[in-house]
Amino acid sequence: MLHPIAPEVFQISLMPRNSINCYIIEGVLVDSGIRSSYKTVKKAIQKIPVYEHVLTHAHADHQGCSDQICAEFEIPLLCHPNEVLRTETGMATQDYPHPQHWIAKFQQKYWAGQGHKVERTIVENDMIGNFRVLETPGHSAGHISLFRERDGVLIIGDVATNMNLLTTAIGLRLPPNIFTSDQKRNIQSLQKLAELNPSIICFGHGPVLRNTAQKFERFVAKCSLAIEK
Question: What pLDDT was estimated at residue 197?
Answer without folding.
Answer: 95
